[in-house]
Design goal:
- The complex is a heterodimer.
- By secondary structure, chain A is mostly helical.
- Chain A has 18 helices and four strands.
- The longest helix of chain A has 36 residues.
- Chain B is mainly alpha-helical.
- Chain B is rod-shaped and about 40 Å long.
- The interface between A and B is medium-sized, with 31 and 17 residues.
Chain lengths: 566, 30
């Protein structure tokens, strides 16, 4: 067990050690400074010329958002149509069929919004064409969308900011060519050398040890799995995601994949510090996020490594921890670490079956998605945290009798209204969705969604909506979710949970940037201190606790008490 | 029938984007 825990700690430290220089590099890319990937400039200029884009044109925050939404709308239409007709197109060696309209709707939205909720299984639900041309493509561009939205906010937070906040298309394309693509190539090469397939042949026939023949799916998976993690997407090539031996062959690839999914979110926090020359602020933000992560991680690791009392009561050795739904090559501690990081970071890939997690771990995974502000997804994590900074600065200012301000700009009623709406949207989407599904199930138990009735079944439905609203994409997959109700309801929740929490923070930052800059003085409420960090942490936890405690009591907490105290 | 469903869902998604575009002005004038 000590070895397993050491592995978890080392993995985290490696991620931080890589994230700091990556953050410095990202800030250099967006400040237009010389980097070694300036070799991509001719390709970028060619793409701009082909599309008729003037990449030097400065845009206001509204123009950035219109560009972002227009591009995403086009991508949805493209993905939706391709998924509807994939069965008739080329690169389909296994003869997989086209998707039904509701599944195509859900899948197109899911990958467009960086959620990667998969109500299908990759081996049978998609063709190689759609795996590459729809899924992998959207995994790149959705991550770049988030990074671009955050960079607009970075520009707005600068001291001398105005309404000229850069060019969306320039920032977006550089996010792909200079950040996501190079990192994905590195991860993909590592995976290929460890056994992840990358060819275009169809299923392979193997003979098992007991003499049966089995068809094993293959395909050009390595590249997709790389961007799945680097872009905090989470959608796996294979149905079992990173629990599959070809998607995540060994403990080393497990470490590589978990580092890959945490790397850009960690780096973007440090990039904020380098970009604005406010490194102390970045460290305070990173410290709060890490404190939040540890608040969720420690109970989860303890719960998983101490085993399942119900299984122990059957006389089965639990010294390896609770191994139901887990892979032996990873162990319980590394599985718990992955499950918490992936739900905090909104990647949503899995290396174990979350439906089999202990109740406390399930509650921590849910809280990770419900808070949705610790590290978070590519770009959107810091955007969500920004909303809480605004609220915390406002409350703190009122408490100590100082003007609420952040980085020299006064926070007034308009900004607070937007921040409050966005902060409350997330619990609303999750709880309204769960209430609706609980009502529908109670009225029609024959719908057959739930393999686990009672507290765990409720948790499955709560998890699905939390995952959709947080754009996570993981699931308690005891839930039968490929049907009209779940495809449509989660589809709408995903799209609302993606774009409004981007529009809100960009609007706040854009409006603050137009205000008069107030230089720091003795009377300024400092936001780069530990005290303010703790205040922000408290705001996040209180809002999450108030909004979600009743829901958690009905699901994972009730299950915990049933398991341990019956 | 499947084509009608697909068209309806496509229109629903596009209406969502219309809502988001309108929300930009809503947030500016809130």
């Amino acid at each position: 067990m000590t070895t397993e825990l050491t592995g978890v700690i080392i993995t985290f430290l490696i991620t931080v050690a890589l994230a700091i220089p990556l953050g410095r590099y990202i800030s250099k890319v967006f400040r237009g400074e010389k980097t070694w990937l300036d070799v991509m400039a001719p390709l970028e200029r060619f793409i701009f010329r082909l599309c008729g884009i003037d990449a030097s044109r400065q845009m206001s925050w509204k123009q950035h958002l219109v560009a972002l939404l227009s591009l995403n709308m086009l991508w949805f239409a493209y993905a939706f149509v391709l998924l509807l007709v994939q069965g008739s197109l080329f690169l389909n060696p296994d003869g997989n069929p086209s998707m039904s309209p509701d599944l195509a709707f859900n899948t197109a939205i899911s990958f467009m919004v960086n959620c990667n909720l998969q109500h299908y299984s990759g081996e049978t639900g998609l063709t190689y064409l759609t795996q590459l041309g729809v899924v992998t493509f959207l995994q790149f561009v959705s991550a770049a969308t988030g990074i671009a939205a955050l960079t607009v906010v970075f520009n707005a937070l600068k001291e001398k900011a105005t309404d000229r906040l850069g060019n969306f298309f320039d920032i977006f394309l550089k996010s792909v060519t200079r950040i996501l693509l190079p990192l994905s190539i590195v991860v993909a090469v590592i995976l290929v050398f460890n056994g992840t397939p990358a060819g275009f042949e169809g299923k392979d026939t193997i003979t098992t040890l007991q003499g049966d023949t089995v068809q094993v799916s293959r395909g050009p998976a390595a590249g997709m799995i790389a961007i799945k993690h680097i872009g905090t997407n989470g959608g796996g090539w294979f149905g079992a995601n990173s629990a599959h031996p070809l998607e995540n062959p060994n403990y080393f690839t497990n470490m590589v994949e978990i580092v890959a999914q945490c790397l850009v979110p960690f780096a973007l926090v440090f990039a904020l510090g380098f970009y604005l020359n406010r490194k102390k602020l970045a460290w305070v933000i990173f410290g709060v996020m890490t404190l939040g992560m540890l608040t969720l991680l420690i109970p989860a690791v303890m719960a998983e490594t101490h085993g399942n009392p119900a299984i122990a009561a059957m006389g089965i050795d639990q010294r390896a921890g609770s191994m139901e739904g887990k892979e032996l090559r990873f162990g319980s501690a590394a599985s718990a670490y992955w499950s918490i990081l992936t739900t905090i970071i909104s990647t949503g890939s899995v290396n174990s079956m979350h439906d089999s997690s202990m109740p406390v771990s399930g509650a921590m995974q849910l809280l990770g998605m419900m808070t949705n502000a610790f590290y978070g997804g590519c770009g959107v994590g810091v955007l969500n945290y920004y909303i809480f900074i605004i609220i915390a600065a406002f409350i703190s200012g009122l408490m100590v009798g100082r003007t609420p301000e952040f980085l020299g700009r006064k926070i007034e009623a308009r900004e607070m209204k937007i921040a409050t709406l966005i902060a409350l949207l997330h619990p609303f989407l999750i709880l309204a969705g769960t209430a609706l599904s609980a009502y529908v199930f109670t009225k029609n138990p024959s719908v057959g969604w739930l393999n686990n009735p009672g507290y765990h079944g409720y948790s499955e439905m709560l998890y699905e909506y939390a995952s959709s609203a947080a754009n996570n994409g993981s699931g308690f997959e005891g839930l039968g979710d490929n049907n009209l109700f779940w495809n449509l309801s989660t589809g709408f929740i995903m799209i609302l949970g993606r774009f409004l929490p981007i529009i809100g923070p960009v609007a706040i930052a854009g409006m603050l940037a137009k205000k008069k800059f107030i230089p720091e003085s003795a009377g300024t409420l400092r936001t780069d201190t530990g005290t303010f960090g703790i205040m922000t942490y408290a705001v996040i936890m209180i809002i999450a606790a108030l909004a979600f405690f009743p829901g958690l009591v009905l699901g994972p907490l009730a299950e915990y008490f049933t398991l341990y105290h019956h | 029938m499947e084509i009608l469903k697909a068209i309806a869902l496509g229109v629903a998604a596009l209406l969502c984007f219309r809502l988001f575009l309108k929300s930009i002005d809503f947030f500016e004038n809130i």
